[in-house]
Amino acid sequence: MPVNFLHRERAELDALMPGLDQELARHPLADLERAPSPAIAAFKAAGGPGLLVPTAYAGAGASALRAVRVQRAVGARCPSLAVATTMHHFSVAGLVEAAKYGDGLEGALLETVAKERLLVASAFAEGRPGQNILTPHLSAERRGDRIVLNGSKKPCSLARSMDLLTASVALTGPDGVERLGVALIPADTPGISVHPFWGTPVLAGAESDEVRLTDVELDPSMVVATEVTAAAVPDALNIAGFLWFELLLTAGYLGVASALVERTLHRPGGGSDDPTPHLVPVEAAALAVEAVARAMDDDPWDESLLVRALTARYAAQDAIAETTRSCLAALGGMSFITSPDCSYLASAAVGLTFHPPARTRMARPLRDFLDGRPLRIG
What are the UniProt keywords, alphabetically (predicted)? Predict the structure, then answer.
């Protein structure tokens, strides 16, 4: 096995989630990728839920660079876990940003997530063709001193293992304008139910089923307000969320492609072959993701940085397509016949293409941004 491939990523994973890499490595890929997957329990046991929680709230306080390396390492062992935990980390990152402006509830919740190793699922609007991903799936109605939620999210990763659910909701302010709010909902709240939805064995371990909310009552203090209106121009909170989402998601899928590269480099008789057709595209894409992650430490979190993150994500899609073709050709028909792992990894890796915002949907918004107009997420 090549010792200098994925070595930095696995070192970060060992440092921040001790024992997780070894635990995942001892399971066959097929066992990790089915639901229920032992990977989710292993992630919790290793302290994974606290990865992005600041140290002030008892978390690991990982930087963006360390986090994307961790996600790549996770994706290389268990694609479903990388996808599922991206949604957790994305939700936690949003709470971290909200804690800078909130009344203390967010900080207390973050500490609880880290100390009790809670899993946070996301019910943001992902997965509907043609729909803006900031548009809430759930309806929110004020009834006396409560907010009542109705609707569903499908698919919703970690649907069967979540401890908390975050959701986008539309709230009408005193000025009559509807703005986006972020609701924090305990998974055991009356009215929440989970139903089968995911119909393919690919990434089944992510538990991406349907979560329904029927007259779910919530205290208004559990809703964090933002300044985003129907025009969907990202504010600081949402830019932060999008940055984390794009980088962590891309890193995870690059990890999946890297697992295929690793198998190709290690195949019998492959030690004398030119590794660059398999190695270079995925490594270059990972470097692009790391460059944006480094910039998150030094540069303003603005629309320009988000465009760089989207650029790295779309470049990774191309790199994954090129890498999977190259690896499958090098592995040959006998690998396809004797083991499902390589064809599975190739199928899972292309899943990055299906997450919003799709490149085709962003064509006009990116053109408008280049011409000096505000960036809109389509």
Answer: FAD, Flavoprotein, Oxidoreductase
Handedness of CA 378, 96, 69, 121 (dihedral sign): negative
Pair 202, 186: CB distance under 8 Å: no
> Which among 140, 139, 138 has a CA at the least distance from the CA of 156?
138
The three-state secondary structure class of 345 is helix
Chain centroid to CA 165: how far? Answer: 14
pTM of the entire predicted model? 0.92
What CATH topology corresponds to 121-225?
Answer: Butyryl-CoA Dehydrogenase, subunit A; domain 2 (2.40.110)
Task: Kindly write down the DSSP assignment for every residue of 21-53, as one continuous string.
Answer: HHHHHTS-HHHHHSSS-HHHHHHHHTTGGGTTS
| pLDDT tens sequence across 19-50 | 999 999 999 999 999 999 999 999 999 999 99
Measure the CA–CA gap between 331 and 266, rounded to whole angstroms: 10
Q: What is the dihedral of CA 37, 42, 47, 50, to 10 degrees?
A: -10
